[in-house]
Amino acid sequence: MDNKEFPEGDDFSGVKKRNVSAFGQGNNVLAAAGGEAGVQQLVADFYHCIDSEPEAATIRAMHSDDLTESQQKLTIFLIGWMGGEDRYIERYGRINLASAHRHLDIGLAEKKAWLMCMQKALDAQPAYDELLKRFIMVRLSFPAEMCRNRN
Fold it and tell me: What domains can be seen in the chain, in order of their start residue?
């Protein structure tokens, strides 16, 4: 095949190539998320969903009335998780997600509601690429499952 015919495609299919970030390397996820300010907005939108969506009422009831500390913890955790400076340990100590959530009654419905709120929060970020949203959701599905302690 003459590659000049498909300069942006591969040699076999002619499908247009797309340059994508190598998510998961360095701080590429954090940078694509808008840095620390972008993560703060993501978390604010996430907790707005937790606070307002009927499907998340059970999760909301697991939190104190004031969500400030929960927002701070999730923001700092996500910044480090996305490749930024890991300040969670110095501020709150080491985290074992399963142990940290063991006192809560978390089943499949709660996991799905948590992930739904995260998806809504991601969708509310106008600068987030669809690949970034998918990458984050896939990666967060594992810790969300680790927090489940009932069927």
Answer: 33-147 (1.10.490.10)
